[in-house]
Specification:
159 residues, Rossmann fold, 4 helices, 20% helix, binds adenosine-5'-triphosphate, binds magnesium ion, metal-binding, P-loop_NTPase, tRNA threonylcarbamoyladenosine biosynthesis protein TsaE, cytoplasm
């Protein structure tokens, strides 16, 4: 693996508005072929992050972005296509080739429940881990890491 793993940021007690803002800041550094893996328990904000990211790229603050729970993938058209993927209902990684993940080398992929990728996990990606804040149920703690050299640019996005 090129570049290995490097911590970018840990942020605690993030409210929903702030999470949307973080997503926007990251989207400003988005590049074709970018992959974002969103880890976190049910309701921690994976879709919320994706909504902030896609709204920012499409410059549409009222765009409806909901989880593609049954279809697994939802595609948004932009300069580069944006693929919002939710693997919650994927029962077997053998199904991944049928979902058509990572076939668009210029596409941007945001993936909820990336644990389901198993051995299809990409070599390089931006890792976002969301946790419930233990003191306040309306807040989240977030850890962001770059896996691979080219994802280190997101340090700039979060300064
Ligand atoms: N600080 C916060 N950050 C994100 N979401 C928050 C926050 N506080 C409250 N919420 C609420 O928590 C919910 C998060 O839902 P969201 O669909 O983004 O989670 P998810 O991780 O995608 O869940 P799932 O695993 O079901 O896909 C929303 O209803 C949102 O309004
Ligand atoms: Mg979701």
């Amino acid at each position: 693996m090129e570049g290995g793993r490097s911590k970018i940021k840990r942020l605690d007690k993030i409210n929903e508005y702030k999470l949307l803002e973080i997503a926007k800041n990251i989207s400003e550094y988005a590049f074709p072929g970018m992959i974002v893996l969103l880890y976190g328990d049910l309701g921690t904000g994976k879709t919320t992050f994706t909504k902030g990211f896609i709204r920012s790229l499409l410059k549409d603050d009222s765009l409806s972005v909901t989880s593609p729970t049954f279809a697994l993938v939802k595609v948004y058209d932009n300069d580069y296509k944006i693929y919002h993927v939710d693997l919650y209902r994927l029962s077997d990684p053998e199904e991944i080739p049928y979902v058509g993940l990572f076939e668009d080398s210029e596409g941007i992929y945001l993936i909820e429940w990336p644990e389901r990728l198993d051995y299809y996990i990409p070599d390089e990606y931006l890792e976002i881990k969301l946790y419930y804040n233990i003191e306040d149920m309306t807040k989240r703690d977030i850890e962001i890491e770059a896996i691979g050299e080219k994802y280190k640019i997101f340090e700039e996005a979060l300064k």
